[in-house]
């Protein structure tokens, strides 16, 4: 059913795509197949969090990582979330995947805390607003992060996507306020692509924004892109928010972002999403470089 999965995920990305007749059946079948396979993957510890470096654009120094969900297949292929999360969006399975992500993220942070090379690194976890609104979100987080070697919440970041469905604003603000009280930083992900960026910035207890890749993509090639990024940074600055640019692939993009006042970035130019062990080696290698004579 892998071909199906690829096909249906491509369609689902269009957003406005409509299914007719037998296609509806095939869509439902694909969805069911993905859910069942994900269910077993969860039970058999078959999911993975890959880590992508987030760097200070001033010198390329890693400051942390974003955890990105991956689903390794028996074939050796590693599926990215866009090819399977659509099938569980409004499903309790999404909640369980979210819990797995948080539990795994917390254990990564806990391991880092005892290693000098990694102790200062932040770890950003993507959380859906659906998960956030579940009762007891912070309490179950505390259970995972507490104990004999509690996780330093100052190292934990959450990334939430601004969408129209952030309509249950009151509940979201409540839980984000609880996160803030613990010292967790919250970033608005894919910033600028949603419906109500400005009102989110003024109403939500957030600490930073992530500029979506689509704005960064042409920043070194089109002046309109630069104006857009400048406007986005201009929106975040008065609130004192940190700004992270996504999807940096060329040095010229870094130069422009720096000039426009964007402090942090991530993208293939610096590092691709990689397994946790590789990230550890990547950071260590970077720090080794740092000590070389100029
Ligand atoms: P996102 O949070 O905006 O993550 C950034 C996406 O950009 C990632 O895609 C990353 O691999 C990709 N990316 C990073 N640098 C570059 C670059 O230089 N060039 C290009 N072309 N792409 C780059 P990915 O891993 O496929 O994730 C897609 C989306 O899936 C994420 O977007 C996030 O919204 C969602 N997601 C990922 N992990 C989780 C998770 O654990 N929980 C939830 N709820 N959503 C997740
Ligand atoms: Mg993200
Ligand atoms: Mg993003
Ligand atoms: Mg995105």
- State the major sheet: 8 strands, mixed, barrel
Catalogue the ligands. ligand C2E, magnesium ion
Count up the helices.
11
> How much β-strand is present in the residues?
15-25%
Contiguous low-pLDDT stretches (5 residues minimum) are 6-15
Instruction: Tell me the strand order in the biggest sheet.
Output: 1-2-4-5-6-7-8-9
Give the terminus-to-terminus CA distance. Answer: 54 Å
Structural class by SSE content? alpha/beta
Look at the structure and give the mean pLDDT: 89
H/E series: HHEEEHEHHEHEHEHHEHEH
**Computed Rg:** 20 Å
Number of strands: 9
Shape: globular
**Portion of residues within helices:** 40-55%
Textual characterization of the structure:
There is one protein chain. With 294 residues, the chain is an alpha/beta fold. Helix content is 45%, strand content 17%. The chain is built from 11 helices and 9 strands. It has an 8-stranded mixed beta barrel with strand order 1-2-4-5-6-7-8-9, surrounded by 4 helices. The longest helix is centred in the N-terminal third of the chain and has 22 residues, at 22-43. The radius of gyration is 20 Å and the shape is globular. The termini are far apart. The model is unreliable at 6-15 (pLDDT under 50). Ligand C2E binds at residues 52, 68-69, 80-82, 101, 126, 128, 159, 161, 189-190, 213, 246-249, 266-268, 273.
